[in-house]
Every structure is written in C-alpha cells, then in structure tokens.
Amino acid sequence: MQQKLEGFMVAIMGGDAREQTLAEELAAAGALVNVTALPVKNKTAGVVVCSEPEECLRGVGAVILPVPGINEKGLIYCPLSRHPITLTGNLLSKVPAGAPVFVGVARPLLVEMATRHGLRLIELMKLDEVAILNSIPTAEGAVQMAMEMMPITIHGCRAFVLGFGRTGATLARLLGAMGARTKVVARRYEHLARITEMNLTPVPFRDLPEKISEADVIFNTIPAPVLTEAILKKIQAGTLIIDLASAPGGVEFGKADGMGIKAVLAPGLPGKVAPKTAGLILARVITRLLLQEMAGN
Ligand code: NAP
To answer: 181, 185, 237, 242: which has the fewest C-beta neighbours closer than 10 Å?
Structure first.
C-alpha cells in the first residue's frame, strides 16, 4: 500500500469504534499515530497507546478529537476508556500554533480554547463531503429503526421525509427504492423539482399541515421546531416519528406522547449502526486534509 502520510505524527484523543478504525487507517497510510483514552483492539504497527495525554501530544502535527468533541467542562468523549481525560489549555499549548484540530462538532469551549492557542479547528460534520457520506449510514439506520418499530413493511408504507438536504435526499431515495410511498417536504422550488424527478411526491413546506395526516411514518431532518403541537394534532395516532435532526430535534416530544404518537429522537446513527463505515469516512476525509497540510496548502 502507498504510504501517503509517511512519518506524519498525529494524536487521537478519546473516541469510540470510529476512532479505532480511523487510527488503523491512518497508520496504514504511514502516519505515526499516538492514541490516548482509546483502547486499540489489536496491536497495530504505527499506533502508539499513550497513558498520558501530554505524551500523546508530543511532537504531533495534528490533533484528532472524537466526533462529539468535548463537553462544557472540557471532558473528552471517550466511552471506551476507564480513564476519562479533560482537554485543557495547558495540553493544547504543547501543540504547535497553526496545527489543525479535527472534531465532528465544536462546542463554544473548544472554539475558545483553539482560538486562544492559535490552532485551526476543522469541524468535520460541517463539510459537505462528510455530511453526504454520513447520510448513507444515517438513512440505513433510520430505516432499520422504522422496520423494528412499525407493524408494517417499508414497502407500501406512507412515508414522509421532512427536509431535502444532505440527509433527507439520501433517505428519500432509499425509501423510494424500497417501495415506500414517499412524500418529501421541502421549501425550495428546485428541491420540489428534484423530488419530482426522483419519482417521489413533493410536498411544499406550506402544505405540511394539511398533508401530514396521510403518514404512517415521518422522518424529520429539519433542525427547527417543525412538528409543533398544532401539527402533531393533525397526525393520526399510531404514526411513528423518527427525528434525525440534532438535539433538541424538531418535534415537541412532550406533546406527542399524550396524543398516542410514537416519537423518537435518533442522534448519532452512523456511529451506532455502522461504526466501521463511519470510521472509514473520517479516515478518507482526514487523510485528504492531512495530505493538503503536508503539501503546505
Ligand atoms: P442540511 O443539508 O442542511 O439539510 C437541512 C434541511 O432542512 C434542508 O432541506 C433545509 O431546507 C431544511 N430546513 C432547515 N431549516 C428549515 C426551516 N426552518 N423550515 C423548513 N425547512 C428547513 O442538513 P443535513 O446534513 O441533511 O442534516 C439535517 C439534520 O440532521 C442536522 O440537524 C444534522 O445535524 C442531523 N444529522 C443527524 C444524524 C443522525 O444520526 N441522527 C446524521 C446526520 C445529520 P433549505 O435547503 O431550504 O434551507
């Protein structure tokens, strides 16, 4: 295999099965990978397990934090480790100014710390490339949940997809291919046109209140309060809502309960249903970005 990242030192701090795959892939591409708070399954050439975060950061040219990053107290997401670690300014001062720090989504504390130490924060989930590739396991995971929770097949069911962005488009295509009678709710005319071209049924966003009663299952991808109490009142009891939008989602969950509507928030599906694929997606994109770093652009 071509050692594209030959000799490049990178630290992976915390994470889950996705970062385990990522560590293996970066090492296979020739990088020297230090990991901390992340057990590695097999001894992998090029991967060094560090018990201390300081050791992990020594000499590295880039830092990779887990997809959820750090919490509001600086604790790094590391569910597989018995020794949680906190990201501090002191730790980040060991990283050369200007180095990239990769994370899925950055909370304000991380933004503040990276800025203070002159580090370049790269939020992977904001990149179209990652969002589009991640939409594949997300859509599969959403359909899997619907199959487990509905008493009817996907084929022939009346499915609504709210939103036609990166996730909504992939999910709508998958549902259509599985034979669901798929209606897609969008507000842009070009999206409604594309939905028609895909042989799915477009529903302008303003028509949502009058059409939504026709659903057996609703997948929400709109990160805004769309399924409000007023809309929920129009949905038939027994309908399933799977809310994919980031917390707090787009559903008034407290109201849905009392109306006999089953509504579930389904965060982080790629990491849950396909951690290896999710890790490979991270590896593909981070490798490309590191190569750009090495090329100096
Ligand atoms: P996206 O590409 O930005 O798409 C968002 C869609 O929502 C677009 O169709 C957008 O319409 C529509 N929208 C946004 N605000 C709206 C509003 N106020 N009223 C009506 N429509 C509105 O985002 P994405 O990548 O598909 O992600 C969607 C959500 O899913 C995000 O919250 C993301 O974090 C989350 N997500 C969750 C998972 C999971 O595992 N659960 C995985 C991936 C992503 P316009 O184009 O007209 O603006």
So the answer is: 237
Q: Which residue range is the domain that position 210 belongs to?
A: 131-266
Q: Tens of pLDDT along 120-153?
A: 999 999 999 999 999 999 999 999 999 999 999 9
Number of domain units in the chain? 2
The pLDDT, as a whole number, for residue 1 is 45
* 164 shares its domain with 93: no
Which pTM does this prediction carry? Answer: 0.92
In a domain? residue 32: yes
Cα–ligand 1 centroid distance for 46 (angstroms): 38
Does any domain span residue 4? no
Whether 204 is in the pocket of ligand 1, judged by its Cβ within 6 Å, is no
Give residue 163 CA to ligand 1 midpoint distance, Å.
Answer: 6
pLDDT at 234 over 90: yes
Average pLDDT over residues 277-286: 97
135 located within any domain: yes
H-state helical runs in 178-266? 189-197, 208-211, 229-232, 253-258
Reported as a single tens digit per residue, the pLDDT across 174-217 is 999 999 999 999 999 999 999 999 999 999 999 999 999 999 99
Pocket lining: 267 vs ligand 1, CB cutoff 6 Å: yes
Same domain for 82 and 203, yes or no, is no
Whichever domain contains 101, its CATH number is 3.40.50.720
